[in-house]
Design a protein that fits this description.
Structural class: alpha/beta
Number of strands: 6
Number of helices: 9
CATH superfamily of the largest domain: Ribonuclease H-like superfamily/Ribonuclease H
Distance between the termini: 39 Å
Low-confidence stretches: none
Mean pLDDT: 87
Helix content: 25-40%
Strand content: 5-15%
CATH topology of the largest domain: Nucleotidyltransferase, domain 5
CATH architecture of the largest domain: 2-Layer Sandwich
Number of domains: 2
């Protein structure tokens, strides 16, 4: 069964560690009832254990002069419903014609990337575009938007965009990287599972953009076993299950 799981997505099979394989086995497609330790022993015996992730460094710089927002998250990245807590940050990827900057928006409910902007600069417009993209898909009214204290997020224009959508701003404490740990975890996953395996510095920026877009919206959101979700369901699967259950509850 483990070989079947690894064969489900040959392009990304190397990203499946023991925990993700175990969670996939417990889903309805396999209904595995054995132990985690058994899965670990089998994977170890067959050379299928994965190396530890490399952790990327932070990128945004704090704007000490700007008025700060309160930390409303306080390292609680759980959410009982979609679109109640969104996280964001910026990371960079080298390409053949300069650095590419990414600004994703992650929903704490299911781990889904609900918005993503990419550009050759890290100005405030990048973050605004990512947020607006997310809002085109989902209603952001009265939700909490959390980020670090980078100047992009403290800018008047960005705060104006949040206010226009009814979102409440939250910011990490100074020098407290764990205050946005779940967003940093996504960056680590993207780089370990995809970007570190290819020479992005030799590829055109347009090609790297396409690779990232496909990985996020075709694989990460829809197919990847997500260990933070119950039974490891991919983000979009968990969201659809929630919406289906809510529709049944309303109809009852």
């Amino acid at each position: 069964m483990i070989k079947e799981i690894l064969a489900e997505d040959t392009e990304n099979k190397e990203n499946y560690g023991t925990r993700r394989v175990f969670l996939r086995l417990t889903q309805p497609a396999y209904n595995y009832t054995g132990s985690y330790s058994t899965v670990y022993r089998v994977m170890k015996a067959n050379g299928l254990l994965q190396k530890k992730k490399r952790k990327p460094n932070g990128l945004t710089k704090e704007d000490y002069a700007a008025q700060k927002s309160e930390n409303l998250i306080n390292q609680d990245f759980s959410a009982s419903e979609p679109n109640s807590k969104w996280l964001s940050d910026i990371t960079e990827v080298p390409t053949a014609n300069g650095k590419l900057y990414l600004a994703p928006v992650l929903d704490c409910f299911d781990g889904q990337i609900v918005g993503l902007a990419m550009a050759d600069n890290m100005r405030k417009e990048l973050c605004i575009e990512a947020f607006e993209q997310a809002c085109l898909r989902y209603d952001a009214y009265n939700m909490v938007f959390h980020s670090d204290r980078g100047s992009q997020f403290t800018s008047y224009k960005f705060r104006e965009a949040l206010t226009a959508r009814g979102a409440v701003q939250s910011m990490s404490g100074t020098g407290r990287c764990y205050d946005n740990a779940r967003m940093e975890s996504f960056f680590a996953t993207l780089k370990k599972e995809k970007l570190y395996k290819i020479r992005t510095d030799l590829l055109p920026m347009s090609t790297v953009k396409s690779i990232i877009f496909r990985w996020v919206f075709m694989y990460y959101n829809r197919k990847r076993v997500y260990t933070a979700n119950e039974s490891g369901y991919p983000p979009e699967v968990k969201r659809q299950m929630y919406l289906n259950a809510k529709a049944i509850q309303i109809a009852a």
